[in-house]
Amino acid sequence: YGGLLRDILLMLNNADDYDVIIQVGKNQNIKEFRAHSNILRARSKYFKTALSENWIAKKNNLIEFKKPNISPDIFDIILKYIYTGKIRLTDESGEDILGLIVAFKEFLFNDILIYLEDCM
Amino acid sequence: MSSRKQPKGKIRPPKKPNSADAQFNDNWDRLAQAIREIHKKNASILSFEELYRNAYNMVLHKNGDKLYNGVREVITQHLEEVAVSQVVPAFPLSGASSSQTNPNGAGGANFLKVLKTVWEDHTTCMLMIRDILMYMDRVYAKTANVPLVYDLGLDLFRDTIVRSQNYPIQNHLLEVLLQQIKLERENEIIDRTNVKASIDMLLELTDASTKDTVYATDFENKFLETSSEYYRVEGQMLVGEYDAPEYMKKVDKRLNEEEQRVRHYLSQTTEPKIRNIVEEELISKHLKTVIEMENSGLIPMLRNEKMDDLGRMYKLFGRVVKGHDEMKSAISDYIRELGKAINETVTSNTTAEGGNAASGDKQTGATVAVRWVQEVLDLKDKFDKVQNLALSNDKAFQTSFNEAFEYFINKNSKSPEFISLFIDDNLKKGLKGKTEEEVDSVLDKTITLFRFIGEKDVFERYYKQHLAKRLLLGRSVSDDAERGMIGKLKVECGYQFTTKLEGMFNDMRISSDTMTDFKEYLDKSVLEKPKLDLSVTVLTSTFWPMNLSASPRCNLPPELTKACGTFQNFYLGRHSGRRLTWQSNMGTADIRGSFKARKHELNVSTYQMVILLMFNDKQDGESLSYEQIKGESDIPEADLKRNLQSLACAKYKILVKEPKGKEINPGDQFNFNNDFTAPLQRIKIQTVASKVESEGERKETREKVEEARKHQTEAAIVRIMKDRKTMEHNLLIAEVVKQLQSRFMPNPALIKKRIEALIEREYLERATGDRRVYNYLA
């Protein structure tokens, strides 16, 4: 990643001004992601609705969102895609790509799906 | 249920549908429950993520249609409940139209308020349902080609509530809406928010078959029908109760109200429709009635110069097709009527004066003309003002007014003469005490009347006569004013019209130079100087209106004859080949008369001078008879009588007549009045002033005009034929009319006669093949 993308990714990794906590996974495989609601809303129709006034739940002034049916590994890729518009697939196994496709579908990222299906 | 996915699903085939069914049932139960919670306004307990995931799973596993139908069922069920529990109980008591049990439509208003709440709840819920079913909208609805869930909600609301098959909600709604509008029309205050909410609701719903809004299909026509009926009744009531200005104010108010109503709570598409209805019922249907209202209609408004009312009528009636036409024709008729009245006062005046016209009341004739023109000008002013202040200077009205003026002005056959006399009156020296600007503005207005004259050639003839008199008698107010007037005429009619008039001015100027030269010539000459100052004006015979070719008979005194001879020698010496004819009937003379009391300077006509000089040879008390004077002077009889009259019967009696009387008769005896006294030293014996022509003169003028027209018509025919060489009869007639109509309107019979005369004189011939075609013969 270079330039703008690197800086934006830095924003995600070192977020100290986050306002959303996303709890991803279930059972033992749970991870919390910190993110910026405005970026999520701007980049995704799903989050635009999920984080709209009608549906958000707040705790300590932070928006809490749970996504149990997706593994943290996959969500990490999705979140990076949301922030940068890019996906790295170099060392992903076939199974993970399938999981990725299903997750992208749920989030209604239709344009990236064509590319992912080509990878299979 | 959080059952884990079966690994390798094909191991136990019979179980798969069961598992999928269970999954489906679980997902659907949760969603249906959630939608119910949303309807109960309990959404805060719901998780978007979970519900979305449920719907997503159902669509992903090809259960989109079951989901979609399930949603439809849940919403329909809910709306049915709403209809029963909320809408039906809010029905206005005994029908919306009964205002007896329902004062001010309170029941109706409440009904609308309930509907507003129901509608708002529905849309709020549908937005949330749309959120959780986003995946279904995106993926299923698109491929299955069914409406998006929000639109599905609208359709269900339309069919379950607004057009419910089970309850008369639609009837109540429409009746209440129409009733509320009716109440507002009757100046009740209604709660527009509730009405607007229902209207907006109807606007959001779509009729399935027409694809138009439910507002358009269910409401608008009923609204327009009732409005039509309402204003039909109101229109009849208003024309019966109010006068025209009040009526128009009411209509204005209604139009305004309806426009406001549309702006506030109806659809903009209704605006032109309701406007048309009000215009039709309140304007079109009562146009004539309002225009013709006694004491307050269009004519009284004009009579009393009610500019505001007229302006309102113009604006209001302009909204409908026939409105302005009706106004125009009513005003035009009125102008014609007023014009006819003006014409009638003039004819009644002239006939009344007919009796004593011969007795020589010379001023009255001109006064009639001046008054006629002034009255026409006043009328023109009045309608110019109306045009300007009330009719936005509408060109169409101007044209129709002009036609009306043209009509009645040309009804008065004397109008060309009258207008010329009016101009004469204004251009005469020191008569009015008006400034040059004032005179100029009057003349400008007069030009507008001149435009209306059909027979401009007749006007030209009179104008020349009057101008000639002003110039020769030195009565013109100023050269500038005269030239200004000619300039105006030139603008109207082109230079051909004014070349002769300008020629008359040139003659005056050249004559004045000639006289200076003549004086110098006399000073240098060794000849015996004349015993009198001679001033000669040389007129070019073709420019001037009088018949200058024939010299009127008159025996001039020898001194004068001699002076004339001297001038003639001088003049012809400079301009060989010209012929001078003395017009003794048009000259004036200053003579000194010695009376018993004192000497007076008398300014008289040449004829009067000739008559007076005869008395020089007579002893005191010696008289001359009419026959003696006539024989010795050889002055034409009519002129002689008129001149004797002004010497013996008018204000200054230089001669005494026996027997006394106003008329000159053969056998009368005349004496020099030695006892004559007058306060002024210099006396002007009244010369004949411009006046309306007598019948005989008019006939003569008419004949001259007809003669001139023959020439002009022939000239036009020849001009056209020379250009075209060959032409069909009707086309030639049309072309001749076109060329001549700026001067007069030639009738086809006249043109035909002229064509025949030209054929006879071999300017034209009939074509050999077709007798309707003429050829030009070079």
Automatic annotation (TrEMBL), chain B:
GO terms for cellular component: cullin-RING ubiquitin ligase complex; cytoplasm; nucleus. One of its GO terms (molecular function) is ubiquitin protein ligase binding. PROSITE patterns: CULLIN_1, CULLIN_2. It is found in: Nucleus. Residues 1-25 are annotated as: Disordered. Pathway: Protein modification; protein ubiquitination. Residues 1-15 have a biased composition (Basic residues). Residues 414-648 form the Cullin family profile domain. The keyword Signal does not apply. Its main location: nucleus. Signal peptide: none annotated. It comes from the Eukaryota. One of its GO terms (biological process) is mitotic cell cycle. Keywords: Isopeptide bond, Nucleus, Ubl conjugation. Belongs to the cullin family. This is Cullin CUL3. It comes from Rhizophagus irregularis (strain DAOM 197198w) (Glomus intraradices).
